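A common beginner's mistake is to predict each chain separately and then try to dock the pieces by hand. The better habit, illustrated here, is to supply every component at once so that their relative placement is modeled jointly.
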Amino acid sequence: MLSSLQNPRQAAAQLMNFGLILSTAFMMWKGLSVITDSPSPIVVVLSGSMEPAFQRGDLLLLWNRNLISETNVGEVVVYNVRGKDIPIVHRIVRKFGVGPEAKLLTKGDNNAADDTELYARGQDYLNRKDIVGSVIGYMPFVGYVTIMLSEHPWLKTVMLGIMGLVVVLQRE
Amino acid sequence: MPTDTMAAEKITVYNLADLKNTTDDAIPNYLNSIGFTQSHTLTDVRLALGYSAFALAAACFAWDYHFGFESTKYLTAAAVALYTLLNGALTLWVLYAERGTVYVGTSRATGETVRIGTETKKNVPEYFVTVEVTSKDGKKAELKFARSFTEWFDVTGRFVAAPFQTMLVSSVPVIAKADPKRAAAALEGATADATGASEGAAAYSPEVLEMLANADVSVVGSAAEEATGSEAAAGKKGGKRRKA
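With all components supplied together, the output reads:
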């Protein structure tokens, strides 16, 4: 394999192939973002607050365009609390007004109280722009891998080790 | 001048990709050494397409990271569309323009251009070669042949240049014209083969046999000491053939 590095064109082509794998994955993600109009079109459910609809580890597909109708009461949406970067999946239970200035209140199906406690200090409701997208599809359990990796960082080391071992054993 | 040196690197003879890549690499080495001028246009276009696509994705990543999604989404949409076009063009280029081409070059002696494309088929240990010769006045002629990799790889996985070059010379007239010395040797070898004296094989067999002997020592080890002893009595050459 090392002999190919003596030929600059071949080396450049190998580097390109590796780079294109990364960039294609990134551009597919961005393409999905553009289509759904959502900065983060796929999210993982982190808490049990929407049980029995969604469990921890479910993968959700979001849609953030209001083509047919506005985002209404009853829809399950993902929103970001102002100033925090943690997406929350809850259902809209109240709506006052129409259009982008409508005031929205959310609540987790499995929670006793609505989300006013979760919102930022001084924030009593959500606006349409706080919402990242409405849930239009889900895949159970698939996202659990990312939860495991973020909650048990040593698993990342183990995974890297296994990947390294595979590379060494396969030689390519 | 063509050289008879062996590739220093040994490959696994069971790995078809290794066999093909090593052989592919030998073609430009040989043809450039006998007076062909290599053209890199096909590869350069592919690299240009691929790297511009990658640069676009990198730029998209940068502006997304700095300015966020909301303020750059139309730019991002345009970038995604352009990236798709560039990647599609790259795929079409590899499929229809390159078509497995490993070498394009013009003979300085005759002015003819050769395009050599190679492929392998799964589980078939043969080298499928397509040679397209374009003469000075633009006439095209295509030549296809398939040869076994065993002709130029020995059992230890070393590439042997001489029989490979002989194979090219005897299959492609343009290359024979560019390398008359090798062509004459190939012709001699062929006539010798026809008379039954296999002189062509003898041209490189001593060194291969030597390697075979070395390889056998390391592979067989002490467990087969007895067998080796009895074969030595029966005749060295026969024993080697049985093991190979």
